[in-house]
Amino acid sequence: MDPVDALTEIAYLLERERSNAYKAKAFRRAGETVAALDEDVLRDPGRLKKTPGIGDSTFTVIQQALAGEVPDYLADLRERLGPARKSALRAALRGDLHSHSEWSDGTTSIDLMVRSARRLGHDYLALTDHSPRLTVARGLSAERLTEQLAVVERFRGDGFTLLKGIEVDINEDGTLDQTPEMLDQLDVVVASVHSKLKSDPAEMTKRMLRAVRDPHTDVLGHITGRLVEGSRGTRPGATFDAQAVFDACAERRVAVEINSRPERQDPPDELIVQALDAGCLFSIDSDAHAPGQLSLLDYGAERAERLGVPPERIVTTWPLGELLAWTAR
């Protein structure tokens, strides 16, 4: 098989299984290196092995691909991950309102995120890098976000739209961590709590309610903040008056995010059912930090379908015009 295809697929699958980010980046970098090589270098094992960006593992993959084989590394990943989970609801999803690039804590360029979204058949993808308060994730100041918006404009057309967005922190007082003037320029605002998850439930409820009632908020992201598995360990989610929050979401037509990351599974099943009964809208999102993670939508769609969430209540099944009319409400 083509060695560039093999290296790129390995990177994609490593990202999908949320493997070490540096490992996936090494395979992506090797793929870019091979794509730029002259054929005579590529076919000369001695020269290829000395090429910067080619390590032992990637060299073996290239050699096996050039020999017409599926590289062992790729075959092992395919077997371990198995076929993607596909629900009937997954086919109805037109896009994704929560993703990150290397501008904040994502691992790759905007271009690679867009390519992956297009390959998955998305009509749209919201780029929602973090806001300035989340310094550990290189959150974007108003100045950096302004720069990014000019870049986003380049990825619109030919049946695909990259939406201007942000995952904005909900401050402790419930305000949003970006200027209203900047938020006015965006297509999609995902508001999330990232700090003090152990706050008193009454205080957390007030914090979330104020964020939901902010006219800029479109999606309430990973609502409890819990972690149930994965390399970061586990942590319990925030506690709050879920009925009050969901009633406010339904009233303001703010979508409750069904976060598709397996380590989050957020909201828990019982809260999805409660939000459904409250009349909430939903957004099934990947919260992708790498191209391969955009396919995690499979897991979110499977959960939503199992819990009986109707497609018409999921904003990411809506065509772009309807979606933008909703975010402009």
What keywords describe this structure?
8 strands, 2 domains, 329 residues, DNA polymerase, domain 1, 8-stranded mixed beta sheet, alpha/beta, TIM Barrel
CATH class of the largest domain reads: Alpha Beta
The overall strand count is 8
What is the total number of structural domains? 2
What CATH calls the topology of the largest domain is: TIM Barrel
What is the overall number of helices? 14
Q: Return residue spans where pLDDT drops below 50 for at least 5 consecutive residues.
A: none
Described by strand count, sense and barrel closure, the largest sheet is: 8 strands, mixed
**Structural class of the helix and strand makeup?**
alpha/beta
Radius of gyration: 21 Å
Mean pLDDT: 95
CATH architecture verdict of the largest domain:
Alpha-Beta Barrel
What is the succession of H and E elements?
HHHHHHEHEHEEHEHEHEHEHH
Overall geometry: elongated
Kindly report the name of the CATH homologous superfamily of the largest domain: Metal-dependent hydrolases
Measured by DSSP, the beta-strand proportion falls in 5-15%
Helix content: 40-55%
Q: Distance between the terminal alpha carbons, to the nearest Å?
A: 49 Å
Describe the structure.
- The chain has about 325 residues and is an alpha/beta fold.
- It has 2 domains: about 5-80, Orthogonal Bundle (DNA polymerase, domain 1); about 90-325, TIM Barrel.
- The chain is about 40% helix and about 10% strand.
- The protein is built from 14 helices and 8 strands.
- It has helices at about 5-15, 20-35, 40, 45-50, 55-65, 70-80, 110-120, 140-150, 180-185, 200-215, 240-250, 270-275, 295-305, 320-325; strands at about 95, 125, 155, 160-170, 190, 220, 255-260, 280-285.
- Strands 1, 2, 3, 4, 5, 6, 7 and 8 form an 8-stranded mixed beta sheet that branches.
- Helix 9 (about 180-185) links the parallel strand 4 and strand 5 (about 190).
- Helix 1 runs parallel beside helix 6.
- The longest helix has 15 residues, at about 20-35.
- The protein is elongated, with a radius of gyration of 21 Å.
- The protein starts with a helix and ends with a helix.
- The mean pLDDT is about 95.
